[in-house]
Amino acid sequence: MREECGVFGIFNPEASMPLEVAKLTYLALYALQHRGQESAGIAVSDGEKLLVYKDLGLVGEVFNEERLRSLPGNCAIGHVRYSTTGANTWENSQPLLKNYRGGAFSLAHNGNLVNQAELKARLKEEGIKSYSSTDSELISNLIKVTPEENIEENLKIVTAQLKGAFSLVVMTVDKLIGLKDPFAFRPLALGRLGNSYLLSSETCAFNLLGAEFIREVEAGEMIVIDREGERATKILPSERKAICIFEFVYFARPDSKIYGENVALTRQRMGRRLAQEHPVSADIVVPVPDSGISAALGYAAQSGIPYGEGLIKNRYIGRTFIQPEQLIRDLGVKIKLSPLSEILEGKRVILVDDSIVRGTTIRQIVKLVKEAGAREVHVRISSPPVRWPCFYGIDTPHREHLWAAQHRIAEIKEWIEADSLGYLSIEGLSSIFAKIPADDFCLACFNGEYPV
Predict the structure, then answer these.
(1) Which of 63, 221, 287, 387 could make a disulfide contact with 293, Cβ separation 3.0–4.6 Å?
(2) pLDDT digits (tens, 9 = 90+) for 242-268
(3) SS3 assignment, position 92
(4) Which CATH number fits domain 5-239: 2.40.50.140, 3.60.20.10, 3.40.50.1820, 3.40.1160.10?
(5) Spatial separation of the C-alpha atoms in residues 6 and 58, rounded to whole Å
(6) At 262, is the secondary structure helix, strand, or coil?
């Protein structure tokens, strides 16, 4: 599984008290870096014109003090990207900058559309050329060709044509707009810093900036922020929510909140439920860092088996699955994790992680733990088997590469060479939330039931 994208926006209504909105956006993108590591960009408005700077690389590689100083204004939006659709090229980086009937606008998008082919054909008929291979540019081009000059009315017309997942931040010279698809697939939150309003994929960006979290943007809702303040409008009918449950399993940062649920605490509850569903006699509960830490804490608390750090992570190595070649991915596990033989030797180990996608990484980790002297290794996964690809903004392999789609659990256990293997059930996962009903989640990657 690969990350989707992260978006951020800030509007400062007080021109007499300018905030360095580009620098604040830069810091927010740092907080959202886990959501995309291929490109980063910031667009700003000074009330008269829009400027954008973007490039391939991490936030700290793309921006420096000089570049941030060249982006003055009172409103900004930012984006970090992982390519769920389209190649990793400069043309596909965001925010996008376009013109429409009412002037200029900039757009940053998190999600994936499922009616891309239909929209491309329609735009081609109108003679609109695309310079990238992303569905984000499809949305921008629809705004461009829509004759409505009022950006709010324009967006109502455009979003009614979209099918799939889209959390958007859109900026004109005098407005910041955030909106979400009718299913609320991807997160988007509203916050406040003094008199300024913020929009962010995750509340962890608010934490870094010292901003106040107001609420989550609702399904089908558009929030418009300008010098008059903030106002919300329901622009798309929403029959049901389909919040991506994998945000809680893996993607979101542990210190974020989504619809009032703290991510770290939900992962601990996943671990507790996992211990109830798949108990085993063992000496120590060991997480796969960092993704398995919260669930392992929950498993240990529920089972009464001591928690221990048996694997140390090299903090300067990125996530192993972002490497494209299988050989590099295999080597990446050894570079990334180092087992502590003094803790593992002779022990019956419960190894906790969040998911198994291809199976390659967990197989290498089980081997590392056994080579360090563990007597037994019992693998526990704090989510159900991933059997179906995602079409809503997570870059998953084709179904034939999803290990659980092609093999029974007993076969997976044998292949990863674990002494036992237990997954959290779908019912167990969807029942651990205190504030989100089970029916409000998208579980398509587990059960193949796609909302769109």
Answers:
(1) 287
(2) 999 999 999 999 999 999 999 999 999
(3) helix
(4) 3.60.20.10
(5) 12
(6) strand
pLDDT digit string (tens) for 136-173?
Answer: 999 999 999 999 999 999 999 999 999 999 999 999 99
CA separation for the pair 246, 166 (Å, rounded):
16
SS3 432: coil
Give 264-436's CATH code, choosing from 3.40.190.10, 3.40.50.2020, 2.60.290.11, 3.90.226.10: 3.40.50.2020
- List, in sequence order, the alpha helices (H) in 51-160: 59-62, 65-69, 116-125, 135-145, 151-159
Q: Write out the two tokens for 445.
A: 């990657």
Q: Measure the CA–CA gap between 128 and 107, rounded to whole angstroms.
A: 18
Give Cα 115 to chain centroid, integer Å.
21
Report which of 221, 218, 225 is spatially closest to residue 236, judged by C-alpha positions.
221
| Other beta carbons less than 10 A from residue 7's beta carbon | 34
Q: Catalytic positions, please?
A: 5
Residue 325's pLDDT is 52
Q: What is the pTM of this model?
A: 0.91
Contact present, 241 and 217 (Cβ < 8 Å): no
Cβ(418)–Cβ(350) under 8 Å? no
Rounded to the nearest 5°, which phi and psi values hold at 48?
A: -125, -35
What the block records as the tokens of 422 is 């237990």
Mean pLDDT over the full length of the chain: 92
Beta-carbon-side half-sphere exposure of residue 131 (alpha carbons within 13 Å): 9
- 376: three-class secondary structure by DSSP: strand
CA dihedral (63, 80, 311, 358) positive or negative: negative
Helix axes 135-145, 116-125, angle to 10 degrees: 40
Distance between CA atoms of residues 184 and 164, nearest Å: 10
**SS3 assignment for 2-34:** ECCEEEEEEECCCCCCCCCHHHHHHHHHHHCHH
Residue 326 has pLDDT above 80, yes or no: no
User: DSSP of 147-188, one letter per residue?
Assistant: ---SHHHHHHHHHTT--B--EEEEE-SS-EEEEE-TT--S--
Segment holding 370, helix H or strand E = helix 360-371
Question: Rounded to whole angstroms, how far apart are CA atoms 418 and 414?
Answer: 7
214: helix, coil or strand? strand
